[in-house]
Amino acid sequence: ALVAPKSIALIGVSGDAKKLSARPLQFCQQHGFAGKIYIVNPRRDEVLGIKAYPSVSAIPEKIDHAYILLGTELVEAALDDCIAAGVQIVSVLADGFAEAGSEGQARQARLVEKANAAKLMLIGPNSMGVVNTNNGFVCTTNAAFKIDDLPRGRLAVLSHSGSLIGTLVSRGQARNIGFAALVSLGNEAQVCVGRLGLTLVDDEDIDGFVLFLETMRNPQIFAEFAQAAKRLGKPVVAYMLGKSTDGQALSVSHTGAMTGEAAAVRAFLAQHSVAEVRQFDALFEAPALLMKKSQLGSRPRRATVVTTTGGGGAMLVDQLSLRGVELTGLSPASKAFFTSQNIPSGSGKLVDVTLAGAQYDIMKKAITQLINDPETGIVVVAIGSSAQFNPELAVKPIIDAVAENPAAAPVAAFPLPVAVTSMTMLEAAGIPCFGSVESCADSIGLLLCDDVETDQDDRGDERHIGTKADDHLALGQQLETMISTAKIGDAGGLLNEVDGCRLFAALGIEGPRHLFLPAGDDAAFKASAMVAETGLEFPLVAKLVSADLPHKSDYGAVVLSIESEAAL
């Protein structure tokens, strides 16, 4: 019923075809949805040529999926109607819930309470809808789905942002990359990414998942989903917002999401084998490469870069090295073959066949030898200008070599120019290709470096920071040392709040902004001055610092919603 309903109800469709609420009806009709579409609008007998019903309960058959397109104040009554009619899944478009202060949070809580009691699946609020490209169920308000030729694929997109499902479809269409299903989760009031993933992970039409995340809710369910996907060999690729302070603030204001500290979320994703990408294009480019993981088998986890253009190849080598990828040139066996065939190979870790090697026979021989060499991990081809103007010369030998050796080492391609025809040919042949050197390097790093982490410095450059095993060992030793030397309170060996924050800060885990005021007669004066200095903004929370009171609210030692300096 989530992505393959037999019957849907669109609640609140406008009679004006130009309005946003008319889009789900138009898109389902345009893309050939074969199920039954019912319109609910108590003020009209028909809407855009379709009979309208006064309520979902009045529809003569059971509805699998309902989309509430009404304003905020009318959503709750519409949900009650859906519950009375026995609807299994309800999506909600309206905003004005958790992101809209205490009143909106109360509204959202009521929706969740009712959905849970009725045992229905509630998607949203703030959801721009659900799409299944394979059956024409394009139940969304996103304008990008007006395109005539909606590309199909085998990836499911789960996104907190509704606009991003359209962005991915648009950018994917330009590359002939399609998706099987796309879901806009909005506020995740009841149904979280993990639960949706678990719902779809066994779908035979889905080979992998693309996630656009603004926060991490219900990590335990998310972990179950990630483990299920890994068990089935379906890669999960994620792009996470909130890496910066400003990004975190936007996530909060957008859907009411509370973001976690970026490093902690990154560690959580890595722990559960979720491939987090830093480059947006890698979000839809990386999955095709990650699906080649089984093809690596027992091959070494390293890359061999082949190129006809030294500068382009060197650029790729540089970016791969920054991500901790082990690079290798020709093995002795391949070196001997290249020499016997008079194929140029350059020197060092870059296999540069030069312009002399930009011929069909030479390139095909070179690729065939490398992918059949047991010393090769993955072959990455940096293709020069011929990719744009002569794809038959540039990419046909690569395609033919791979087609004739399907069990050999995997191959990825990075055309340096804008080369739409070449990229379409490569992708149609099952060869992952990339539009930027950064996306290519990100994706190969994720494929090969299971035990390697990278991080970015303040300039956005990535730097190798060692293996996970080494980092975790050092982290454990650092934690043990700090706890043993910290000032421990007398209450059962507990740290007070200040020492606890210092401990986490030393480990790179950023806590909430705060200031500490030692007890004294001048505490009020200090508070006034220090609030301004630290950049704290009202409303604030005041808490008594003491390891002797682990549950401070029980003793009135926590004060919430302090609105001014005078109140503080």
Relevant terms:
7-stranded mixed sheet; Rossmann fold; alpha/beta; 21 helices; 568 residues
Describe this structure as you would to a colleague.
With 568 residues, this protein is α/β, with parallel strands linked by helices. It folds into 3 domains: 7-276, NAD(P)-binding Rossmann-like Domain (Rossmann fold); 295-450, Succinyl-CoA synthetase domains (Rossmann fold), CATH 3.40.50; 486-562, no CATH class. It contains 21 helices and 22 strands. It has a 7-stranded mixed sheet, with helices on one face. A 7-stranded mixed sheet has the order 9-8-11-10-12-13-14, sandwiched between helices. A 4-stranded parallel sheet has the order 16-15-17-18, sandwiched between helices. Strand 3 and strand 4 form a beta hairpin. Helix 9 packs parallel to helix 18 (437-448) and helix 13 packs parallel to helix 16 (396-404). The longest helix has 18 residues, at 101-118. The radius of gyration is 28 Å and the shape is flat. The chain starts with 6 loop residues before the first strand and ends in a 6-residue tail after the last strand.
